[in-house]
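Example complex used in Figure S2.
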Amino acid sequence: MLPLTETQIQHSFVNASRKEISDLALPLDFATTDWDRLDCFGWRDRKAPRRAYVFVWLDDSPVGVLLRQAEAVPRTRAQCSWCQDVNLTNEVVFYGAKRAGQSGRKGDTVGTLICANFGCSANVRKRPPLAYIGFDVDAAREKRVDDLRVRARGFARAVLGDASRPDAAGEA
Ligand SMILES: [Zn+2]
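Predicted assembly (172 residues):
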């Protein structure tokens, strides 16, 4: 994905208050982020338990979503709905996001079950485990990367509540 600056991060949230944005703590290793290997940029706030953030690019603009980890713990071995990693080595949690604008102020939220530490981009770049002769590993990996982008953007669109573009599925 295209790199994000600290300023872009602070100005691209669609569902966070000024106070929430001023309180956020960037990851300690932010300066060394390898943007080329990311499809979405997410992190947990080390200073605010249960709070996390995720960014994607939508139509050449960064979109940031503030997430809150649900109290309820998903059943064990839940699968991440973004990377659908089959190795199940990551902790998967349920994150909820307030919708942007009016509906969010009324308490409307969107939820998603994803890797707690946003390892999705790394997961989809792993070699598929069940390769057989003639199996196109690169194509399979590319497909998983594309799928992750579509799903992460679809989530951002759901938070935005953009009814004019119902789903990201037609984007590829
Ligand atoms: Zn994941």
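Residues 14 and 100 are 5 Å apart (CA to CA). The beta strands are 41-44, 51-58, 61-69, 92-98, 109-115.
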